[in-house]
Amino acid sequence: MPDPFHTIIEPFRIKSVEPLRFTSREEREAALERAGYNLFALTADEVLIDLLTDSGTGAMSAEQWASIMRGDESYAGSASYERFSAVVHELTGLPHVIPVHQGRAAERILFAETVKAGDVIPNNTHFDTTRANIEHDEGVALDLPCSEASDTQAPAPFKGNMDIAKLETVLADNEGRVPMVFMTVTNNSIGGQPVSMANVRSVREVCDRHGTPLFLDAARFAENCWFVIEREEGYQDRTPTEVAQELFSYADGVTMSAKKDGLANIGGFLALRDDDLAARCRALLILTEGFPTYGGLAGRDLEAVAQGLREILQPDYLRYRVRTTAYLAERCWEAGVPTVRPPGGHAVYLDAGAMLPHIPRDQFPAQALAVELYRLGGVRGVEVGSVMFGDAAQHELVRLALPRRVYTQSHVDYVGEVVAAASKNREAIRGLRIVEEPLFLRHFTARFAPLL
Ligand code: F0G
User: Fold this and answer.
1) Is 64 near ligand 1, meaning CB less than 6 Å away?
2) Residues 267-325 pLDDT 10s
3) pTM for the full model?
4) Which residue's alpha carbon is nearest to atom 11 within ligand 1?
5) Exposure of 209 by Cβ count < 10 A (0-12 exposed, 13-18 middle, 19+ buried)?
6) Cα 92 to averaged position of ligand 1 atoms, centre (Å)
7) Fewer beta carbons within 10 Å, N or C terminal of the chain?
8) Does residue 219 have its Cβ closer than 6 Å to ligand 1?
9) What's the chain's Rg over C-alpha atoms?
């Protein structure tokens, strides 16, 4: 920001707008009843502020829209692929760049080619789709978060880190059965918490000692790099691009959902060092995603991602991004609502378990809070607790994920007000019971009924 002003403003102005639809409390009550108190079943126009996910929900820049007109839709050898792969190569240093339609497609192709039954894949914490794809190939998806991660209130700067001692043990105990180690940056499943460069270096050293490749799940790599600049000794004077290049220099491969830090509505890639693995992955890609120069995307999508990957590393953007999330967390704290601390990069996680101690876990306190935020103010977050994980849930959280470049400070202030209103009447919030649930991934489609 220009001296001497301190307000961190949105580093863009708005040239195209999308109207919001306001609903009455009665309309929201009716919508909740119809949706079986599952916010996934709401239609988007029933939601005022949609914080369900930061994935594919960002706003594209004028340059991205302009680049879309330059999209080359040639089936083979598209110029858009050349531009896309040049940007990914410059960033990651990896020679093989394989486009895919979104992050989980990269995971599916990679694991299909590398994971055998009984293989173990350690990660700081696997994202759901990463875990599911490994388990689909009968591998074991092992989470090795650092010890600070289990305490939602611990103020540690890099709670996304991996436990190095445990990694050492796992690799020693499973010689020949670990096709790769994964690191998720930032660590979404434990609150969007960053990983330090020192931790990545240590993981790399352990991998080198055991001859095991290291992969990054880079969905939110730029946010992670900004935390490194802000919090890690020795990085204050580096640019986000330099920090990102160092981060990727430790990796043998990268899976990327470009729907997050690619600033695009769709897209992703798999980037690899190993020639043979790349050839096998490309063969599989052709089977299900498309020819290797488009991988299930239109040429215009490749252009949007290439441009997005440049814009995401602008310091003014990242400063504003991380500050916005912290700002929302501060509004929640003012209202006496505990959140996972410190706030992560892409989302604020409300601690519904601590906020609603009168609702037992089997009555889903986080689902009850998510429903209440919608009922009061049309704000849609997502439950990350016993509905999503069943008995394995460690915490009862509501994630409020901020789409990139979409909402302004007044929208965030409004969300803060809605959270405060829910907090004021917290004793009146009641739990829910499940009346209908599918066999798998019940949080998407289960139906609930309110308890009296
Ligand atoms: N890895 C991480 C860390 C993610 O957060 C996601 C998606 C994926 C991989 C899969 O990517 O959706 O493009 O196939 N996370 C979204 C979310 C869905 O809401 O956190 P995808």
Assistant:
1) no
2) 999 999 999 999 999 999 999 999 999 999 999 999 999 999 999 999 999 999 999 99
3) 0.96
4) 103
5) exposed
6) 19
7) C
8) yes
9) 22
